[in-house]
């Protein structure tokens, strides 16, 4: 049911209206999306079946890969299909579902990144109590809490849009439904809604980003007391995490800290954190991680050997 809405569908203008560029968008983002799905599935399968990757860090990395895959899937297929469609129409209900999916999986990624930072902090700064604190049961509870918090966040965001009347126009100058363009199309003053977006999405991104940065500064500072080999290994892991955090949080903060204001670059910024970052994360967390690379080689060599026999 739609409360007081005459608009039943929206038109997504996509990234470009040029036919040749639309074909390029289809090819480029199809490759990106397939790379995201294959890369994250490879990480999930490797962690699931490799005994050497049983630590809490890889437990959280497994769920980060799930969040990345679902987060990209909430927007990429619509962009890819829309690039070859004459009319890029999305129904009101599908639009609301896309907003919900975008925020629940985006928020889940934020909380998993926070949990990964907590895990690294305890492993490096409190190694004697690490295994006692980060037991399997504790990790599972933390992931469940992250999912619950992400669900609450997403429902709250959807309510901010669902209560608004839409009378037309129905053109969204984006490739997906999100809060800012929808708030601009509403047939009422959305000042309060924009403030709530800042206090919800904007604050969630900004506060967690600073918490993560402070935690990694503390971790890096504590590494001065470690051996050269231990420092090198921890530094490699933390550097990967910091790169992933900056690539994801930077664009998110840029978009959600100012929902009432839009810039021409917003489209590409949104593309970067919804499609680019999930594509890069498997590369960041595997190419710089010798344990994951060795586990992949061992696992797939065993499977190839078993099939040949």
TrEMBL record:
One of its GO terms (molecular function) is olfactory receptor activity. Residues 39-285 form the G-protein coupled receptors family 1 profile domain. The chain crosses the membrane at residues 24-45, 57-80, 100-118, 139-164, 198-223, 235-257, 269-287. GO terms for cellular component: plasma membrane. It is found in: Cell membrane; Membrane. The keyword Transmembrane helix applies. InterPro entries: GPCR_Rhodpsn, GPCR_Rhodpsn_7TM, Olfact_rcpt, Olfactory_Receptors. It comes from the Eukaryota. This is Olfactory receptor. Belongs to the G-protein coupled receptor 1 family. It is a multi-pass membrane protein. Its main location: membrane. Keywords: Cell membrane, G-protein coupled receptor, Membrane, Olfaction, Receptor, Sensory transduction, Transducer, Transmembrane, Transmembrane helix. The keyword Membrane applies. The lineage of its organism: Eukaryota, Metazoa, Chordata, Craniata, Vertebrata.
